[in-house]
Amino acid sequence: MPTYTSLQASDPAVYAALAGEMKRQKEGVELICSENYVSPAVLEIMGSVFNNKYSEGYPGKRYYGGQEFTDQVETLAIERAKQLFKAGHANVQPHAGAPANIATYFALLEPGDTVMGMDLSHGGHLTHGHPVTYITKIFKFVRYKMKDVESGEIDYEEMLEVAKKERPKIILAGFSAYPRELNYAKIKAVAKEVGALAVADMAHIAGLIAGGAARNPFDDDFDVILTTTHKTLRGPRGGMIMTKDPELGKKIDKMVFPGYQGGPIMQMVAAKAVAFGEALKPEFSDYAHQIVKNCKHMAQFFMDRGAKLVTNGTDNHLMLIDCVKSWNLAGKEVEQLFDRVNITLNKNMIADDPRKAMDPSGVRLGTAAITTRGMKEKEMDVLAQFMLRAIEKRNDEKALISLRGEVKEFCLQFPVPGIA
């Protein structure tokens, strides 16, 4: 574990916040499904002297000199990404997932073009066309939903009908709160029929795909894949865009830089290279499959005890619980209750939620981070029991304080990478 002696000496206030966050992570349960713990190696490279170097351009085609080692590390990241995801081309420079999405829109569309994506309340993402985002002022977005919320089946027939009417240039397959696997072949067939590009935003499940625990959209002839590099992929916070089409790759590269963003954050590009190297190891496949096993197991534990889950289960790393139907509590109440006992998850809307986004009916939780700490099925039972006890004892402050201590004692048995 780093000692942070320089930081402690130069800025005690920031060090105090860092020490507090390390303590929080060690003593608590992280169930936010978009979060994970990176390895000590990834943490080290993120704090390296690559931070000091401007590297505008691409390997072999930089605007500044002194790029021998930045070229080496970015090339490593590119080649490892291509190997992981069966891609012909990878751009590893996007600073985050949303910039990767927006750069792709700008590369492949003209202002006023139409994009079809999953409705936010049915599991989609803000960048897929929610009205609060600025991108909707530039492009037109239409949405598809689940046909059957009980099973999670997407209404592919309606998708085709809407696509024929609206003629989207891109059909997006991707989500931030959808517990099932999409049928990429059907989405590709719809895209082909209307002359659209099939684009997958796999930000949440990239690690599952890399580890062979979820289907790769490239296997169903998708044109472009977008992703973040953290979440289940367990790398640094950042984005990436991949394709098998060299011409699309050229358009994307030109739009990422200089079209949309400036120089890459080289310490993060280097950290992506490290994380991709880790994901290529056999043990990462074991990890990815264990994430899904853990999530399915916990979901079943909740359902066996009367909880109502959206789509009645999960195929991936996340689940959605309808808290109103399960416990007659709003999602925000459940999030705040679990915070009191060192269990972190997030409130989340459910399909066609009658409540508002900041006070929704559900919560979203996932198993990527706790799996990184070495927890398996039996620990899922323990964690679920903790949560159900918190629900039962929600009005008993003494019981919640005692439960918080139990959660802390349990968590300290499972070290957080990079924290002693």
Question: Could you explain how this protein is built, in words?
Answer:
The protein is α/β, with parallel strands linked by helices and 420 residues long. It contains 16 helices and 16 strands. A hairpin with a 2-residue loop joins strand 2 (57-58) and strand 3. Helix 3 (40-46) packs antiparallel against helix 10 (266-279), helix 6 (156-166) runs parallel beside helix 7 (184-194) and helix 15 (377-392) runs antiparallel to helix 16. The radius of gyration is 22 Å and the shape is globular.
Protein structure class: alpha/beta
Strand content: 5-15%
CATH topology (fold) name of the largest domain: Aspartate Aminotransferase, domain 2
What does the average pLDDT come to?
A: 96
Domains counted in the coordinates: how many? 2
Biggest sheet features: 7 strands, mixed
Low-confidence stretches: none
Rg, rounded, reads 22 Å
| The first-level CATH class name of the largest domain | Alpha Beta
Summarize the structure.
By secondary structure, the protein is α/β, with parallel strands linked by helices.
Jot down its keywords.
45% helix; Aspartate Aminotransferase, domain 1; Aspartate Aminotransferase, domain 2; 420 residues; seven-stranded mixed beta sheet; alpha/beta
